[in-house]
Amino acid sequence: MMFTLLKKRWKVNSVNLFLIFCTFALGGSTCARVGKAIMGLSGLEVGFVWWLIYLFLISLLWPICVLLISIPLGQFVFFRNYIQRILRKFTGKKDSKIPKIAVFASGKGSNAENIIHFSQKTGLFTVSAIVTDRPNAGVVDIAKQFDIQCIIINEEDLTQAEDLVLTLQNLDISWLVLAGFLKKIPSTLINGFAGKIINIHPALLPDFGGKGMYGRRVHEAVIASGKKESGITIHWVDEHYDNGDVIFTATCEVSPDESPETLEKKIRTLEFMHYPKVIAECIKKQMLR
Ligand code: GAR
Predict the structure, then answer these.
(1) What DSSP state is assigned to residue 119?
(2) Which protein residue's CA is at the shortest distance from atom 16 of ligand 1?
(3) Which of 12, 69, 122, 153 is 20 to 30 Å from the Cα of 22, by its Cα?
(4) Contact 270, 248 (CB under 8 A)
């Protein structure tokens, strides 16, 4: 029961939980030994003052010890975030400075998953909600896996999107990131999150975009056109499909024997490599304004 709670709270699997416990145990004992060794060098008699200094010393040594031990055990990111959280508690600084985003997706959610991993690794933003129009989409499982709130919407929620805007704002979400979301974003949502909605398209826009141009279909169209190059386009979202100003593009070659599957692989590599970083850059630029 306690393990299940911890896994949920820390968003880790059983193996990582075990390694985290090992890091706590090894970090704690190393810190105690080093602390005692240093106190031994001081020549002080064990007593009240000794204990006072010792406790102060180990509270300084503990973060260093666990961070060092977390590296070979592969838990550095967890402990770095853990210690940052403790420091924030002590200094009274709130997490609220970290921008919260919602990822909109209709498909399997591989980009959503990659964005979540990036956010957990870097702490540059938090994915606070997954929004989908498909209750059976793979992205719903991704939301469950990471214990992120999943909001399932229907056609009406989008045509009358005031409630959706409110729901997202109540969750303190300030950015919307589309990652394979099939529906058009209504103007209510665009106005509610003005200049803070980003989309990725798996081709070089303005070609191969628009209604129905989604996932594998896009790659089939690119190959059928005989183009020698494809890529990804990350752009601001307006009321039209795949239309707003371009933020970033990256390209790849379309080889003569390319199949939609192989092209999809190349595109996914570009998406994984660039999308989370571009999101983080957009957020950073807006925060500096
Ligand atoms: C991604 O390739 C994304 O670029 C594309 O849908 C895929 C979603 O895959 N988006 C569009 O086609 C938008 N017009 P995922 O669910 O595995 O992230």
Answers:
(1) H
(2) 109
(3) 122
(4) no
CB of 125 within 8 A of CB of 119? yes
Write out pLDDT tens, residues 78-94.
888 888 888 877 887 65
Cα separation of 227 and 223, whole Å?
7
Mutate-to-test residue for ligand 1 from 131, 142, 214, 272, highest number of ligand atoms within 8 A of CB: 214
Interval between CA 194 and ligand 1 midpoint (Å): 22
50-77 pLDDT per residue, tens: 999 999 999 999 999 999 999 999 888 8
Give the Cα separation of 81 and 88 in Å (integer).
10
In angstroms, the CA 132 to CA 115 distance is 16
Catalytic residues: 201
Residue 8: the pLDDT is: 72
| Among 273, 195, 176, 175, CA closest to 232 | 273
- The CB of 202 under 6 Å from ligand 1? The reply is yes
Residue with tokens 């399932």: 152
**CA 151, CA 139: separation in Å to the nearest integer?**
11
Mean pLDDT of 92-111: 86
Ligand 1 contacts CB of residue 110 (under 6 A): yes
Note if the pTM is more than 0.85: no
DSSP 166: H
Q: What is the set of domains in the chain, with CATH numbers? A: 2-91 (no CATH), 100-288 (3.40.50.170)
Q: What span, in angstroms and rounded, lies between the C-alpha atoms of 46 and 122?
A: 43
- Cβ–ligand 1 distance for 123 under 6 Å, the answer no
Ligand 1 centroid, distance to 276 Cα (angstroms): 14
